Protein 1
Amino acid sequence: MKKKIVLVSFIDQLNAQLVSKLKAFPADSVVFTGPASVASTASAACASIYPDKSSYCAFLALNDVGFESVLEALQMLKAQMPNETIVVNIDSASKQLSSAAIAAANSTDCLLGFTDEQTNAPKLLLPIKFSYCSNISPTKQKILEALRDNPASSLRQLASKVGLPLSLASYHVHGDSRSEGLSQLRMLEVSKDSGRLKISLAPLGRIYLKGCKCEVESKHAVKAKIIAKQKRIAN
């Protein structure tokens, strides 16, 4: 059975030329997403693209045009449509929204779509992976998860939360000459609040937990299976 292709178009504004470009995309349905202020414009575009099949089109309002809101929207759509191919279209978005959509598409395995300015033909790009998705170890991930809801008031408290020796917790937070720690990777913020140490998630750490966690877990699971299989063969 052919996979259904859902075109997710991020919009700040729409005109006839942009609607024409969206019509040219070989998609089974379209989800417009953008600020609530463009909902009526998106509805009119839906009627133009699918005049007899309004159910093939939908609008998803964003709280803002920042990366986290766009990422959450794509993750929700991926969860609702796990078997469909999702193409993120950026033809009708501002630079800020386009940047957020490109970054979110890369972290959720969505394809990127745009219209070639010379040929006026739809183009698709494979996602480019964030390097952080492959560079964070399971222990560093546990530290990030431990700080998801509340910061730690000391390195000792963080070590206790994660179940690590103090020296190892310090290594993963601060790093050393051989390896960067989470604070150097700008995934944790280490500061002093009223003279007391405070270790909390940085924005990049929150983005990692939202966008890369599942990918890293699946990679480590595959690696564990390979090692287990090699041990069985050796025995």
Protein 2
Amino acid sequence: MINIDIDTKMKFLHGFSHKTRILILESIKEEEKTVSQIVDDLNGNQSNISQHLSCLKGCGLIVGRQDGKYVYYRARNQLVRDLLTMFDVVLEDVQNDIASCKNHIE
């Protein structure tokens, strides 16, 4: 069994705890993109998106690749992409229970 420190696990899960970060992850799940492309996809602002990208990098979920003056962001690896897909599979199964949760955060 893998033994991961709970604080490390919480930092990792923090990457999934904001709507903008989830939208970014979905945007770059299948292909790498620049900040400008992500901003366009999300109709967001560059400063906000850049802050969330920094968080996602710090959580170990994404990586950036410098190419000239651009940085291209992508999901860290296939495991992260698989995890995003697994979230969808599990959520499809439990979505009615989530909808009735009185302690949800919007």
Protein 3
Amino acid sequence: MGKLLILSVTDHKEHILKKIINAIANEPELDRIALPLSDTCLSFPNIEIRLKEQTVSCSGQLVTLTHHEFAVLTYLARHPGWVFSASQIYEAVWDRDGEHCGTAVASVIGQIRRKLTPDTPKGGYIRTVLGSGYKFESVI
């Protein structure tokens, strides 16, 4: 039985992942399954997240997000359907121990919801999973 290696990095450390992938790319004894890394854009129905420009368009309208709002949205959107606890999100975005994240994540998610779907903030792209955390739904 072979071994499985799963790597996950934050956006600002993605260059490390690329170096690792390049280092092992030509190894003939490795079987690879890799998802393509989009360097430019995450697209879903009615929402487009441009990573390099750090901009978000919702239904064709530019939405202004703070640094943390953009980072949280991007983190969740890179893993649609995955459920992340507030602590996991805090550790990934703030790069600090998530044990004492308080209401920082909930506050930022509330702001994102109000900006992306002001008419239906609870029915938008970011859903609360009771007792577990939050997830990004690509279809609203």
